[in-house]
Each structure stands twice: as C-alpha cells, then as structure tokens.
Amino acid sequence: MKRINLTMQISIGMVIGIILGLVFGPKIAGIQLFGNIFLRLIQMAVVLLIFGMVIESLGQIKANQLKKLGTKTAIWFLVTTVIAAVLGLIIGYMMRPGAGLKLATLHANGSLGKAPKDISTIVLSFFPTNIFEALASGNVIQVIIFAILFGIVLNRANTAGKFDQVLELVKAINGLTIRLVMLVMKLAPLGIMALMAWVTATNGLKVILPLVKFLVAFGIGSASFLIVLFVGISWYAKVPLGGLINGFSRIMLVAFTTTSSAISLPVELADAESRLGVGKAISQLVLPLGMALNSNGLAMYLSLACVTLTQMMGLDLTPGAMVQVVVLALISCLGTVVVPGGGLVALTIVVPTLGLPLQTIAILAGIDWFSGMFRTVLNVVGDTTTAIAIAADENALDRTVYQRQTATKLNLK
C-alpha cells in the first residue's frame, strides 16, 4: 500500500479539523493548545536552521565560481525573486483574497498598526549590533544578514582548506537540525487539525472562501510571472519565444506534478542542455545553486500569504511592513529549507516577524500541497531561465536547439 505523503496528511488533517470545528463548535476550542505546541516546536529550531543553511550554502561554493559566475547568478536570483515578491503583493492587493473575513479571537501583536518608519530606520534595523541578541529574540532578518557575511568570509578564508572543520561542523549541525525539524513535522497533521478545528469553531465555514480565492490569486500571479520571465529571457538571450516555452514544457510538467524541486532537478539538468541549449558547465553550477539559494515561487507565496493574512485580520500592511515582506521573502529563499512542508516552515519565519498571530499559519497550511504546485513551477523555471541568461552572457548558449525544435514541429505537421 502506497504511503500518504506529508502534504496530503496535512490536507486530510485540515478537513478533519474543519469537520470537528463545525460539529462541536466552541466546545472544542480548547484543542488549540495542541496546535500551539506544534507551532512552538517548529519555531524553536527554524532560526538556527536558516542561520546554518545560509552559511553552508555560501561557504561551500568554490571560490573561483563565486568570483566568476557567482555575482551574475546572484544578481539574476535577486532580480527574479524581488519581482516575484512584489508581484505577490500587487496580486494580493488587487484581488484581496483575505477581505471579508475578520478572524475572531486573533489580534496582531507587532508593528502592522504602527506609524510607518522612514526608509533609513527600516534599513538600519536589518543590521544586528549583537548576533546573540538577534538569535535570542528570533530577529530573522538580522540573523540572515550575519549568516551571509559569515558565509562569504568562510568561503574566502577557506580557499586552502584551512577552515574545512568549521564548514563540516556547520554541515553537521544543519543535518541534526533538519532531522529535528523533520521529527516535529511528523506532528503537522495533528497540529494543523487542532488549529483548524479551533479556527472553524470560532469563525465557521466563512474561513473556506478566502482559501479558494488565495489559490486563484496565486495561480494568476504565477501565470503573470511566467509570462514576464519567458518574454524577458526570449528578448535577453535572443531565442524564439515558442521554442523557449516548448523547451520548458517537460520541466514544468514534472515540477507541477511532483511539487519537488529536488525531483525536478535531473530533468532540469537534462533539458537545459538538450532542449534549451545551456552549456553543461553553466547548468551544473547554476541549477543546483538555484535549488539551494533561489525560490521565486516561495517569494511570491510568502508575500501573497502575508497580504491575505493581514486582510483576514482586518488590517493593511504599512509601507515599512511591505518592505519587510519583500526582504523576508528574499532572504527566506537563501538556503531553502529542505524538509517536508518547507512552505509551512517558511511561514513560521515571516508571520511572527510581521507581528501576525502564529496561529494564522494553519489557515494556509491545509492547502499547502496545491500551493506547492505553483511554487515548484516558479522555482524551477526561475532557476533555468537564470541559467539561460548566464549562458547567453558567457557565449555558452547553443541556439541551434531551438531551430531543431521548430523544424521537428514543422515536419510533424
């Protein structure tokens, strides 16, 4: 008998929780305690995990690769991720998936309702004065800024292997932390069931409609982002748009159906070379690096989720909070969490930082499998289009593959 995967278990837990909330009503509201315990168990390890993953990702890149192609790759990752995050905000405000629902018994506790800060104060707050204080308080932005700098220094200082032991120690700690998070994630179906039972018991079935609207908004945002990427890369790399889309067809199909960037990677590597003309040296550097450091789909998901949840709370993001959302979406993609339910784990980073109640995560957790379809497609397409752009810059793009694809289609006709 085939084992049900974790995301499906979470979806089943969500359905059971909704049924329990509707059947028993306020009598079952006390079950929230079990859901809150689950969320705290996730929170206790996630800052350490992100801290270590960023250092490991940057520290193990070969120095010559980091210098030669690293800058170009980082710029493309940065640009596409920011576009995805900003597009998520725009779609959220245009479609307003969370509007019309005011969650009972939940209150924001952070800076959402405060007066907007000036841009210099916002930027200054990203940089820590004490890394231990940032770790203790769970200030994710400050922790990641320190981790990025530490990872770069480790990379530069370790060219002769002098600090291999430090890198191996970081990898070992990351491995153990991932095991811890995976252990906690086994409780996710029960935790989400408890939280959804409580949410439904206190708010009723009206909580379902925003979930459908969220998925529609995410689908429209994903389609818009893909159009921007394909048109932009077609122009930049001087390749035919039709051949580009045809070359991506198998990659997108595998990504959409498996909801796994790791499973999609072998197909990406094969099709990037044979169907999209990317040189092997470029694809073998950019695509694995993209899986670790770049996640356009997650960036859009997080920004759209933040807009949706604030709308459910009857609030609006201040300009300062919007900047925070984009920055958090960007840096949450560094060292993408390689555990089941990674989208859920990422939400536990962003939501508390914005001052939103942690329990609101449960509302979107139940549809994480469907969200994962869109996230994965955007992730793999973003990585592969970056590889095409860099190959074009480095004269390592074989454009004849597009001509062969066009000729094959004409022969078939």
Q: Care to describe what's here?
A:
It is a single chain. The protein has 413 residues and is mostly helical. The chain has one domain: Sodium:dicarboxylate symporter (Proton glutamate symport protein, Orthogonal Bundle). Helices cover 75% and strands 0% of the residues. The protein contains 19 helices and no strands. It has helices at 6-24, 32-59, 63-68, 70-95, 119-124, 131-137, 140-157, 164-185, 188-203, 208-237, 241-258, 261-274, 280-293, 296-312, 319-331, 342-353, 361-365, 368-393, 400-412. The mean pLDDT is 79.
The proportion of strand residues reads under 5%
Largest sheet properties: none
**Rg, Å, rounded:** 22 Å
**What is the helix/strand order?**
HHHHHHHHHHHHHHHHHHH
Helical region count? 19
Helix content: over 70%
So, CATH architecture? Orthogonal Bundle
Runs in which pLDDT lies below 50 for 5 or more consecutive residues are none
Overall number of strands: 0
Please name the fourth-level CATH homologous superfamily: Sodium:dicarboxylate symporter
Distance between the termini: 44 Å
The structure class reads mainly alpha
Number of domains: 1
Q: How confident overall, as mean pLDDT? A: 79
